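Reply to dn_fold:

You asked what the input looked like. This is it:
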Amino acid sequence: MSRTPSTDPIRRSQSEQVRRIREHLANRSVVLVGLMGCGKSSIGRRLSSALSLRFVDADDEIERAAGKTIPEIFEDYGEAYFRDGERRVIARLLRQGPQVLATGGGAYMNEETRAAIRAQGVAIWLKAELAVLMRRVQRRSNRPLLKAADPEAKMRELMALRYPVYAQADLTVETREVPHDVIVGELIDALAASLEAASLASPALADKPPLDELTATPDELPVPSSD
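and this is what came back:
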């Protein structure tokens, strides 16, 4: 079936845009940050497909490394233990770019993780309003930090604490109740413009670091001693 001439230039333009993004990214990852419910995983999968990059969910990798779900990790070992394992896992994943990497809501709060993302990735904050977040998180029951008497008050608290830190990300794109493909298009436009500007300012890109094994390393989430 022949394509209409009017759509071919659009497809060619989009293809060229993706090619340029891939070229400028080199070995770096596109790292999605933001609060639970902002759409990091669902939008991240679509973005990775559009960019022809693999998609990795840091939370899935943490669960694989621990052999437990995140709610189980919180319950058995506490948040501090989870955050330390999260930091280790993300550090490993960042050495395996390029990819689209979705991180947990608290990951970007760690200063060491932010520094690693700056060095080996492009951070994009998926920003969302409270009402949007609450509608989305209420569909799932596996949110340890929202197991509170007043989940909305807890979400407000997290927004007040985390939004100023998320604002340090390289790019911010607002997520809202529109089709995910709309957000993906905005992400690609923002990425293309940002990476193009950065390449003009600093054309030399760092050499690609060696790839690590894709499986979890033994020391990422060591099982605490029962003593």
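The longest helix spans residues 180-201.
Hope that clears it up.
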